[in-house]
Amino acid sequence: MNVREDFPILDLTVNGKKLVYFDNAATTQRPLSVIEAVRKYDLEQNGNPHRGSHYLSIKATEVYEGTREKVKSFIGAKSSDEVIFTRNTTESINLVAYSYGMENLKAGDKIIITIAEHHSNLVPWQQVAKVTGSTLHYMYVDKEGRLPSSELDKIDADTKIVACTHMSNVLGTIMPVKAIIDRAHSVGAVAVIDGAQSVPHMKVSVTELDADFFAFSGHKLLSQLGIGVLYGKKELLKSMKPFLFGGDMIEYVHEQETSFNELPYKFEAGTQNVEGAASLSAAIDYINGLGFDKIAEQEMLLTEHALEGMKKLPYINIVGPRDLSERGAVISFTVEGVHPHDVATILDSYGIAVRAGHHCAQPLMRYLGIQASNRASFCFYNTIDEVDYFLGKLGEIRRWMGYGA
Ligand code: PMP
Predict the structure, then answer these.
(1) Residue to substitute in 93, 120, 168 for testing ligand 1 pocket (most ligand atoms within 8 angstroms of CB)
(2) So what's the ipTM on this one?
(3) Cα 168 to ligand 1 centroid, rounded to whole Å
(4) Cis amide bond preceding 340, omega within 30
(5) Residue 297, pLDDT score
(6) Which terminus of the chain is less hemmed in, N or C, by CB atoms within 10 Å?
(7) Residue 249 CB: number of other CB atoms within 10 A?
(8) Pocket of ligand 1 contains residue 334 by CB under 6 Å
(9) Residue nearest atom 6 in ligand 1 by C-alpha distance
(10) How confident is the model at residue 402 (pLDDT cuts 50, 70, 90)?
């Protein structure tokens, strides 16, 4: 894939070595077209949207609302009213937790999530359970990080919310979200999907999935930090209270009472991140230009090559499915006898960026019986040569630490 020149940051030298950026599940790098779109916004379009009738305010409104339309098409939503801008996945899920969960759940109700959730799709539900008296239950993955279909039987008549990641940021597992959503609907529950790791790597249609809520972050999708999206079904969003209160989200304000703006503005209080929207718009254009077929092909090639190489190293333990068909471009692993932070530091000295730690999924790590792991995550701009370099350096880590091999 000939895209490297679009991403100048990939030419950086770090610690005297060429950067190999394998921390894409944390955040992706930005192509020049995204950087240029932000520059154009700053130079020619910056104003406060929705607030004025002058040129720059109108330009900013066009950028912002144009991005909403683009996101609508990108995720296959039926209406742009169903696209709410937030700061990130975390804020999107909190919006649902506060405006839907806190208001609709009561003692005796159940919230069901998987053990593989990122804290941002776990802690908000703990809070909803604590405040409403409902209870939080888990569907557990098997030893390889796959969700057995029998776990879906936990979704019963008392269940009001089912929340699940589309793709685990630790295991790499692609979760059976369609089956989970259908099951949730069969008992009258709403389904909340955390798409932070899926949207950048596969074509998603929220309409085909029939998700009630779907959350993702721009910064894992080649865009700037600080812009995220919550998709919600119109009827649900309409029925919900606002999350934040203040400017822009109102219709009329009286001394003691306020009526609220229509969708989607009801959920967008205060001046919004239009620069981020400009960035997200250009990022979606870039991804659409490449196409998900090409993106998936390259990312699967990289993942397969890395998995095969890692399987040959006896001191590497791969966390998550070993079968390529069940996972995305995220590989968590441990190196026997070497702490993940040492692994990451040694790899960094070779210019290789990987993650170390609990990956914001402490309950999962505890369940798997590991304190921490490393994680290499790929994006279509990575190369097989980079994977080979990484595999070679993995081989050197144990020697650094004084082991024979
Ligand atoms: N869910 C998953 C699966 C993630 O990987 C992440 C980011 N690591 C998040 C949620 C949270 O994303 P953000 O920090 O952008 O809100």
Answers:
(1) 120
(2) 0.99
(3) 10
(4) no
(5) 97
(6) C
(7) 19
(8) no
(9) 196
(10) confident
At residue 162's C-alpha, the angle toward residues 159 and 166, to 5°, is 160
At residue 348, the 3 state secondary structure works out as helix
Q: How confident is the model at residue 405 (pLDDT cuts 50, 70, 90)?
A: low
pLDDT of residue 279: 98
Average the pLDDT over 98-114 and give the result.
98
Is 360 considered catalytic here?
yes
DSSP structure class, residue 99: I
Ligand 1 mean position, distance from CA 356 (Å):
15
> What does the buried/exposed string (b/e) look like for 37-52 if buried means 16 or more CB atoms within 10 Å of the residue's CB?
bbeebeeebbbbbbee
Q: Closest Cα to residue 384, out of 316, 291, 290, 301?
A: 301
> Which residue ranges make up each domain of the chain?
4-22+291-400, 34-288
Catalytic position from the list 161, 263, 360, 379:
360
When the candidates are 3.40.190.10, 3.40.640.10, 2.40.30.200, 3.90.1740.10, the CATH number that belongs to 34-288 is: 3.40.640.10
Q: pLDDT of 281-313, one tens digit each?
A: 999 999 999 999 999 999 999 999 999 999 999
What's the pTM?
Answer: 0.97
Residue 17 has a pLDDT of 97
Calpha distance 3→382 (Å, rounded)? 9
CB of 377 within 6 A of ligand 1: the answer is no
Residue pair 229/215 in contact by the 8 Å Cβ criterion: yes
Which pLDDT score, from 0 to 100, does residue 214 have?
99
